[in-house]
Fold this sequence. Notes:
CATH superfamily: Response regulator
Shape: globular
Radius of gyration: 18 Å
Structural class: alpha/beta
Strand order of the largest sheet: 2-1-3-4-5
Number of helices: 6
Number of domains: 1
Low-confidence stretches: 1-24, 146-153
CATH architecture: 3-Layer(aba) Sandwich
CATH topology: Rossmann fold
Strand content: 15-25%
Helix content: 25-40%
Amino acid sequence: MGATVDDKENKAGKPREPEGLEYGLQRKLVLVVDDDPDLRDYVREVLELANYRVKTAPSGARALQELAHEAPDVVLLDMRMPGLSGEEVLELLAKIKGHPPIVIMTAAETARDRALAHRNPYYLAKPFDATLLLATIETALEEPGEHERDFDA
């Protein structure tokens, strides 16, 4: 007996998901918050090529809306943005038990100091390359800490 069309497609006529995907092999979600559209596009491209799901926000206020909709696995957060700044978003998130890990993105001369001032070990000094971006995200995702996944959007 040969395979039928129903063996390869579901009732909606769409190809079936490969075996195992429905059992928790979902890709990690990264929320990228930066007011620079070129940087958001660059980071999105790098992350999607590395098989991450990506959402972006051009402002701190929009980031909070995204966080309320779906909890990301990690947040990349620019510090200097008009309106609600990255520092204000960071302070708000720090009050939430189990918030996702946050990678601070800011100018090279202040990145480490600003991250440490907020008791946050993850930072990227701008400009950064794809290798450093991916390594920093992997580190933030792998290290246990206060941000363990009690966070509920």
